[in-house]
Amino acid sequence: MNEGLDAYRALEAKQQPQWPDLAAVQKVSEELSSQPPLVFAGEADQLRARLAAAARGEAFLLQGGDCAETFEAATADKIRDRVKTLLQMAVVLTYGASMPVIKVGRMAGQFAKPRSSDTETRDGVTLPAYRGDLVNGYDFTPESRAVDPNRLTRGYHVSASTLNLIRAFTQGGFADLRQVHEWNKGFVRTPANQRYESLAAEIDRALKFMEACGVDHTALTQTEFYVSHEALLLDYERPLVRIDSRTGLPYGTSGHMLWIGERTRDLDGAHVELLSRLRNPIGVKLGPTASVDDALRLIEKLDPEREPGRLTFITRMGAGKIRDVLPGLLEGVRDSGAQPLWITDPMHGNGITTETGYKTRRFDDVMDELRGFFEAHREVGTFPGGIHVELTGDDVTECLGGSENIDEATLATRYESLCDPRLNHRQSLELAFQVAEELKKLKH
Ligand SMILES: O=C[C@H](O)[C@H](O)COP(=O)(O)O
Ligand SMILES: C=C(OP(=O)(O)O)C(=O)O
């Protein structure tokens, strides 16, 4: 199995930077190959087992984080607020659905972006498009936009420190369920936060009751938290493949779960080939043009053994299309006997650009796609196993609507994303409450 790890090199690899100096890339690649793994094979196996439960309808996956992480924003405060937001959403979902929630950040590696165009033009000046901090800089100057392989090593180190902090937060007491009120502190008071506060009070009461009954809560003091990113940049992913000493099998050690994007999921492309060799749980984005045949071939290539939890399909159809497209896809896959985990990304099919040039999404469209996802699964009898959302713990104004009613004029006030718009903290909580409602319906 391990001999084929480099077979991808003979295939077309889309969305890769045109490195000017291949010797420099080789040097970086050797350096990365000698670094310790960021995650361990056993953790990836554990996540696979958790995802298998979600595919069976016994758990729910919450996957979220920045569209594009940046080196500069990898600060303790920003990482903490993203983790807090995910923990709060997980509490809302767990309590609402009475079901374990698997927490996976789009974090500690989400540094490379596929782009529609190789270049960007501003006021008559054309430069290479920004492809994420792992490749080039965002500032619109020739120096900053030049691709630089040394960014791969920097990305590795920033991922390591991000992951270190995430592990400290989630294992060191910060994620203790008795901190459920604390996670809400520091965020502006909104209807969603107040609703969260009442839920936290109920959880508190339940915990005190358990304590009074002498129940041991050690299990609640820590939480499992995994990291994931789009495995886009093969010159980063390949050197971080390691052979697991327990089994002799290869794992991508840049993150627990790796996914293949909508633009790079070609069956005969390099991304599908490389990830087919790795033992991690693998995600694949499926947009509105994905056919049943595409899905079945991806299953055959990426999950020939039909291993529970191995494959997650992340659908991103767009609110206007999901009800037409998704049921047929679900039926076709169900009828083949395969049982991948199905989750929804209600963000990527709903992008719009305002007249003033802001890339944005309407919160209402995001919610509509979410409802469409639950409806499609209800219709076909399959399990809607999770959500994949671009979000931040920061108070940004990037997506339109939500209870604070962000309008086009407000977008400019705190638009910080370097690529696509994210839900801010309160929009994320609002979304979690609505998903919890949908999950409750499943129980009845
Ligand atoms: O996050 C997804 C893609 O990288 C992004 O939507 C591409 O954006 P573009 O169309 O501006 O290149
Ligand atoms: C690029 C992304 O999505 P998609 O592949 O679905 O366009 C993403 O999730 O960052």
From TrEMBL:
Involved pathway(s): Metabolic intermediate biosynthesis; chorismate biosynthesis; chorismate from D-erythrose 4-phosphate and phosphoenolpyruvate: step 1/7
Cofactor note text: Binds 1 divalent cation per subunit. The enzyme is active with manganese, cobalt or cadmium ions.
Keywords from the named record: Amino-acid biosynthesis, Aromatic amino acid biosynthesis, Cadmium, Cobalt, Manganese, Transferase
Reaction catalysis annotation: D-erythrose 4-phosphate + phosphoenolpyruvate + H2O = 7-phospho-2-dehydro-3-deoxy-D-arabino-heptonate + phosphate
Gene Ontology molecular-function annotations: 3-deoxy-7-phosphoheptulonate synthase activity
Cofactor dependency: Mn(2+); Co(2+); Cd(2+)
Alphabetical GO biological process terms: amino acid biosynthetic process; aromatic amino acid family biosynthetic process; chorismate biosynthetic process
Binding site for phosphoenolpyruvate: R106, E262, R263, K285, R316
Chain residues that bind Mn(2+): C67, H348, E390, D420
EC annotation from Swiss-Prot or TrEMBL: 2.5.1.54
Family the entry assigns: Belongs to the class-II DAHP synthase family.
UniProt cross-references to NCBIfam families, sorted A to Z: DAHP_synth_II
Protein name: Phospho-2-dehydro-3-deoxyheptonate aldolase
The organism's taxonomic lineage, starting at the top: Bacteria, Bacillati, Actinomycetota, Actinomycetes, Micrococcales
